[in-house]
Please model this.
Amino acid sequence: METVTFTNSRGESLFLGTSKPFYMTTIEGTGGVPSDLLSTKSPYQDGTTFVDMLLANRPLSIIGGIVAFSREQMYQYRRDFMRILNPKLGLGTLVYTNSYRSYAIEAVVEGTPEFPKRIVLNQPFTVNFVCPDPYFTDVSPTSKGLRFEIGGMVFPLVLPSQFATSSYEAYFQNDGDVPTPVEIHYKGPALNPVITNETTGEYIKINYDLSENDILVINTAFGKKRVEVVNPDGTRTNVFHWIDLGSTFFQLQVGKNMLVYNSDREGDRAIATVDIYWNNRYGGG
Model:
């Protein structure tokens, strides 16, 4: 069984399943998407040298119908349908569910829904979506804390002895098909806080004195990059210009990633906490 729920930028939702009043018969575009080969060619070279494969926008096409108990109600449902799927509202969130699981993707209606000839009180429709980011994601982000931990082993000697260990690092698992951006919430204190992805050697460092009541928020998503400090009163301060020049807005690589946090001031790490949020990304559902 397949269903679709589309929520527009106003928060209005439309559910397409197998029951009245809005039903879906087919959906196309949940698999692969068109791609372009990016390559280079040298003089006298046979063929080309592969550089990358770039995916195009994802088209999604849905065919279904609207069923009502009266002609007046049918046209009312049609009006609701048009209002929720208004392309001028910009990107909304489309959640596609099959018999295995659910996936989310940002989508906008291409043009407006089409209404072929009505069959008594059954109004067929075709609606085409365009998804600028072709990857499906988890419906809800995965989150994991990166905190100071201490532990140890006690041996039955004459005097109890404990061998303690401390850690400011943790593994983060990307179960998707491609690397994925992260949103980092670093709660102070920290002097020039830094988060390092030991798996790739990349880091993000902000040359800023973060108080114990401040939260540094870093988003590494393409087109949505931001670096802000959430102040105790809830206001936000843009600190993008305080980024260390060697920093990289890194992504979680597919598989395991070791992340570490640090501060230039002794003792900050044991107090600070860091939470990482990410969505696994999939080439198709």
Summary: Residues 71-84 form the longest helix (14 residues).
